[in-house]
Write a structure and sequence with these properties.
alpha/beta; Rossmann fold; 3 domains; four-stranded antiparallel β-sheet
Length: 297
Amino acid sequence: MEDTATCMLCGSRESERFPPRYLNGRLWRCLDCDLVFVHPQPAVAELTALYGEEYFSNANSNELGYSDYEGDRENIYRTFRRRLKSLQGVHPGKAAVLDVGCAYGMFLEVAAEAAWDVHGIDISEHAVKRAQERLGDRVRAGVFLEEELPSERYDVVTMWDYLEHTLDPKADLAKARRLLVDGGILALATPDVGSMAAKIFGHRWMGYKLDEHLVYFSRATMRRFLEEAGFRIISMKHEGKYVSLRLFLQRLCLYAPFITPFVNLLRKARAVPPISFYASSRDILLVVAQKSNHAAG
């Protein structure tokens, strides 16, 4: 009898496996609520080992992590300043913020520029050490669900590119709600498996990452997760980021392999100018939600 996977959103055991070319046959879709997820899931210890120094700097970022996270610092700052501006539209003035999955702490640095009271947590000890160089003990290493954090302490909780990496997004969202003050704001960004890009490019879509991305949200499943966790959605839209032309061309080659020889010629001739720009393939969801007065169901 073929293995079956239990849906972490609705609990159904009615699911279907994607073709083997999708994440080596580990990708499943719930037939009841349409959530897409990895099965079997890794252990926490495996996740902790995954996010070491190599995750943030490697030559295979299309499969794992980043090619040069530190080297892309200025573009990441620009992206986070754009996101902070959006948050200030729903939470004007100062705020106490917890960034879950804070990595090197770049969003926290941007928020500190706006005089926010910043705190962060990340599973990666390597990343936290880098963040602490600028932010000190306001950043800690640990698994979010396992760490003791003060209830009703934060005005804003952010989860940038975090929730798709987790083993239990429902529990993560429930904990985020407990940490927020009444009316507090949750903001997150995550790949949109229901996007046109995901449908067009299939298994070659950049959102599919083996071992790294464990849950794949659509607008519908994200809405259900949030509402069942006790949040009211304020906005849900597609968001891009600032990227270098070099990285943009590198990723474009994955979707259009026929241009690879031309791009390689440009690289060898050092003809790729060091410029950056805002780009969006409309496959990243940016969600802002507010803590409801009471948890759902």
